[in-house]
Specification:
268 residues, Thrombin, subunit H, 30% strand
Length: 268
């Protein structure tokens, strides 16, 4: 039925012209006025009925398509609404979990870089600060650019910071884009290596590396550097990922030592 209605609707003008031509021919050849008037009246009735049915059919199929489109849009909106509800529930759940965690306040203690580490076993910096009494061993050291290292030795007036270019330095790290966890260490030159990333994990040049926070030394989300090369060796389990440090260790003049102040929500 639908193809017939579509055909009539599409060729409506041509069919009407044909219909009128046939009627005109009948009118011309007919000499009886009553017959002509009767045919005119009948033709108008038939034409009106056909036209009305065609319009009704066109409206029906148009409304049917509109209803289908509306149902599709409604389904899409419902699905998105479910996703938002799930995200809201997850947010509420996380907020409840956070009620059991300790809030971490901190202060940044400024320190001046006055030289390199006098100890041959440590690749690091010699720091001077007026607040040496607040500094603790293994405290993280940073700048506005990112992570520098950690405090490994404290004397009455000075402190030694082991930088990430030290052969013994290790920092738990994460890839910002996909949250993949790895370990940052010195690459033997002027850069870093992101180790323990399986060959099956996608890492791309430009990925930003941050501290993971899975450590009692380094707080989370300190920028470590940016991936500048990725190599995959099929004979090895892990990728070889080179990272350009966020900090230029050759131009450091001042750093900040991270001093956490832990307290629970009630302030006790």
């Amino acid at each position: 039925m639908t193809p017939i209605i579509n055909f009539i609707s599409h060729y409506r003008q041509s069919l009407l012209v044909t219909f009128y031509v046939v009627l005109s021919f009948i009118f011309i050849t007919s000499g009886d006025n009553q017959v002509v008037e009767g045919m005119r009246s009948s033709s108008l009735t038939i034409f009106g009925t056909i036209q009305e049915q065609i319009d009704n059919a066109s409206s029906y199929f148009l409304l049917r398509k509109q209803n289908r489109d509306l149902r599709k849009e409604n389904t899409k909106l419902a699905y998105e609404n479910h996703q938002l509800q799930d995200a809201l529930l997850e947010n509420i759940r996380l907020k409840k979990l956070l009620q059991f965690e300790y809030k971490v306040n901190y202060e940044l203690i400024p320190a001046k870089v006055i030289g390199y580490s006098p100890q041959d076993l440590i690749t690091g910096l010699l720091l001077s600060t007026e607040e040496i009494d607040k500094i603790k061993k293994n405290a993280a050291v940073m700048t506005s650019e990112g992570l520098v290292g950690k405090i490994v030795k404290i004397s009455s007036n000075y402190a030694i910071c082991q930088i990430m270019l030290d052969p013994n330095s290790r920092v738990s790290a994460k890839v910002q884009r996909n949250r993949e966890l790895g370990m940052i260490k010195w690459d033997g030159a002027n850069g870093l290596l992101l180790d323990h990333i399986p060959n099956t994990v996608k890492i791309v040049v430009g990925d930003v590396i941050f501290s993971s926070g899975f450590s009692q030394i380094y707080p989370a989300n300190l920028k470590i550097g940016v991936v500048n090369s990725v190599e995959t060796d099929t004979n090895e389990l892990f990728k070889i990922i080179h990272v350009m440090p966020a900090v230029n260790f050759n131009k450091l003049e001042e750093v900040f030592i991270y001093n956490p102040i832990r307290e629970n929500e009630s302030g006790n």
